[in-house]
Amino acid sequence: MAYSIPELSHFPALDTFVVATKACILPRIVPMLKEIAQQGTRIISCQNGLDNEEYLAEAFGPDRVSRIVVNFAGSQMGDGRIAMSFFNPPNYIGPMTAKSEPLARQLAEMMTAAVSKPNSPQTSKSTNGRRSSSMRLSVPRAPWPASR
Description:
Blueprint: H1 5-8, E1 16-19, H2 26-36, E2 42-45, H3 52-60, E3 65-69, E4 72-78, E5 81-87, E6 91-95, H4 101-115, H5 121-127, E7 135-137
Parallel strand pairs: 1-2, 2-3, 6-7
Antiparallel strand pairs: 3-6, 4-5
Helix pairs in contact: 2-3
């Protein structure tokens, strides 16, 4: 289910935000996300382009930010409904710092479990019915330097 940022403010706990917008929208939504983020809320950048995660790290701190390298696509079928066009595992998640590695590992495991069930459309379409790992953890050797 997809929610607007104001709707998220009504939730008692906001553990993780997945930011999946065009990069040019970040300056508009980050102030709104900061208003509703709670202590320890983690941010996952799931966007095309470079340096989006660094922009988010400036607002929320690098220990709270990870990024996903996406190798699948879909079409919006309505509010909160997406039809998958293609899915080519694995996809990668990378934490900005070693401190956020446990979150990245947890998210990789959760996403893999969600799409690698036998006979699911994603599994059947992309792997001929075999189970496959959809997410892999990509851990940086050292924290990424801020370029800003």
